[in-house]
Amino acid sequence: MKELNSKLVCSILNEIMEYELSGVVRYTHSALMVSGPGRIPIVAFLKEQAYESLKHAEQAGELIVGLDGHPSQKTAQVKETNRHSIKDILEESLNHELHALGLYKKLLENVTDRSIYLEEYSRGLIGQEEQHSLELKAMLKDFG
How many separate domains does the chain show? Predict the structure, then answer.
């Protein structure tokens, strides 16, 4: 096995943590802005995404601590577009998930053949982010 660059891995994990925390803000705000006949199931979906983002941030933070790093107290910037149609919210959510997917892939690149545990963690989160992306794409189909 290759040697793990803990400092680099902690830096990537902090980037993930900050981005996942911004997801809590993004999804909570989006849930508040949904209106119309589809409001109830979409609000429930967005609230679940906010909760999951918090869990993902906590997981990343725990790994940072385990690697003798220091978890960030920052959140990634959440851009306010002031576009709050259901279609816009779902598109912004999809973009958020795709960016998160890229962060987990970046982590995987830096832990492969260095840590089985971190490799499995990365792969698991990549799978979850891919699943969310597929769900959002399916939700967006009717907006063609």
Answer: 1
Q: What are 70-100's pLDDT values in tens digits?
A: 999 999 999 999 999 999 999 999 999 999 9
In whole angstroms, what is the distance from residue 91 CA to residue 19 CA? 17
Does some domain include residue 78?
A: yes
| Residue 86 belongs to domain spanning | 6-143
Q: Is residue 52 part of a domain?
A: yes
> Long-range contacts: 57-64, Cβ < 8 Å, 24+?
57/16, 57/17, 57/20, 57/21, 57/23, 57/24, 59/121, 60/13, 60/14, 60/16, 60/17, 60/20, 61/13, 61/17, 63/13, 63/118, 63/121, 64/10, 64/13, 64/14, 64/17
* Token pair recorded at residue 12: 């990537």
Q: Would residue 65 count as lying in a domain?
A: yes
1 occurs within a structural domain? no
What CATH number does the domain containing 106 carry?
1.20.1260.10
Tens digits of residue pLDDT in 32-77: 999 999 899 999 999 999 999 999 999 999 999 999 999 999 999 9
